[in-house]
Amino acid sequence: MRIDILTCQPELLESPFAHSIVKRAQDKGLAEIHLHQLRDRAINKHGQIDDYVFGGGAGMVLRVEPIASWIDELQAQRTYDAIIYVTPDGETLRQPLANKLSLLHNVIILCGHYKGVDQRIRDHYVTHEISVGDFVLSGGELAAAILVDAVVRLLPGVLGNEESALSDSFQDDLLAPPVYTRPAEWRGRAVPEILLSGNTPKIEEWRHEQALARTEAHRPDLLGLK
User: What is the pLDDT of residue 161?
Assistant: First the structure.
């Protein structure tokens, strides 16, 4: 998968992509991530990429020219399956959406800043608008990092155990059950005996029951109970 990210603060993304699972995916050649500085396409020698809001109001808006210039150049080189704008008013990122995006090959992610981007960019280029939650960040970079991590870890061959991602929270609309490791007893607290029994069908039944209970307690909306 190739991911091109348009941003005015690429430094915020360098560290998240240089470690852990995302780095492993790049080292294996399973993911290719390119950061593109919007200021490289500034409209003047001062590095301007934003301007005042038409009609008045506080804040600045990213102009169309720097963004369009980058997208036009990238699209001339290859076909993109999606152009994603990360924005608080987009579709909330959930596991099913991450699963679908992981099947794509070439993706552009646009990071907003200030009050966002000129609407004409959204109308003309953007195919997906995605939010990581009902809150506002200073820019789209951290949201882009979350999106990339959620998608890249699903690519075949990235995780050491291919079944690991399938047992994550939200994959079956349930939260993951409790997990334990050694020691079997710690400060008087013992691991549930069923997990030490070696009875796989009973263990899976227990895990499903625990997942249901945890989901009902913490995210009843996933079960349609809210």
Answer: 66
CA distances from 180 to 28, 75, 81, 162, 206 (A): 30, 48, 40, 20, 13
Across the chain, which has 226 residues, the per-10-residue mean pLDDT values are: 98 97 98 98 97 94 98 98 97 96 98 95 98 95 98 94 64 90 97 97 97 96 86
Report the CATH number of the 2-152 domain.
3.40.1280.10
Instruction: Give, for 60, the enclosing helix (H) or strand (E).
Output: strand 60-62
Q: What integer pLDDT is reported at residue 160 of this predicted model?
A: 75
Q: What is the pLDDT of residue 167?
A: 59
Q: In 3D, which of 174, 177, 84 has the Cα closest to residue 131?
A: 84
The CATH number for 169-223, chosen from 2.60.40.10, 1.10.1270.20, 3.30.470.10, 3.40.50.10940, is 1.10.1270.20
Q: What confidence score (pLDDT) does residue 163 get?
A: 54
In 3D space, the residue among 95, 109, 75 whose CA is nearest the CA of residue 168 turns out to be: 95
**Residue 221 Cα distances to 158, 173, 174, 216, angstroms:** 31, 10, 10, 8
| Edge-to-edge strands, sheet with 128-131 | 32-37, 2-7, 106-111, 82-92, 128-131
What residues pair up with 129 in beta bridges, in sequence order? 85
Burial 13-39 (b: 16+ CB within 10 A, else e): beebbeeeebebbbeeeebebebbbbe
